[in-house]
Amino acid sequence: NRRRDFADVRVLVTAGATWEPFDPVRILSNRSTGKMGYAVAEAARDRGATVTLVAGPGELRSPEGVRLIRVETALEMRDAVLANLPMHDVLIKAAAVSDYRPAVVHPSKVKKTEGPLTVELVRNPDILMEVSRHRRPDQVIVGFAAETEDVEKNALEKLRRKNLDYIVANDVSMAGAGFAVDTNIVTIYGRDGTALALPPLSKREVADRLLDVIRDTRGKVGAGS
Ligand code: C5P
Fold first, then answer.
1. Complex-level ipTM
2. Would the annotation count 127 as a binding residue?
3. So what's the pLDDT on residue 173?
């Protein structure tokens, strides 16, 4: 029974892409729309959770009954996640964070010239790696892995490296999965070795299945186990 089974649970969700400015008019970003993360936030809210949603820029409307923190860059998302993490029991990190940002942000629009333009990119911090150093053992940390090949191998490697309790892996090259569609095809891997392969489902149903998994193991999972 999913009714109110997340009452008294505080859930922090991230959603969407980040925007990495190059100059006042140009950005580096990716194809994420935030649909998966918004679906997780709404599902958790409907099951009684207190939900904070850290969302990148996008067209999606603000969900009612959810505390929304809007961010643009990966650095802003990191600050919002680390500042709010201590007050939450569960972190579900569905955002597609830009791995790189332009090394220099130009204060005025860069003029085009005839020749090519080389832009230096620097690495953004990996927010989940930082979370893994600050998390409490009683917190449940969930990552997402969008892959185009070797989905299982890459997902399990991320699960271990980022010290996650679960990773939700999807092959974004498959029709009906990944960016900008309303459905997803995922496998939920647990640090305990479990693998739950789900059929094609709406993102809302994927969110509910993920919350079912978290509910059934909360208290039994965590860095200390
Ligand atoms: O390594 P990769 O980006 O594929 O891992 C995906 C997971 O890591 C997602 O949950 C994403 O939100 C998170 N991530 C992050 N900070 C980054 C890059 C990814 O928290 N800089």
1. 0.94
2. yes
3. 86
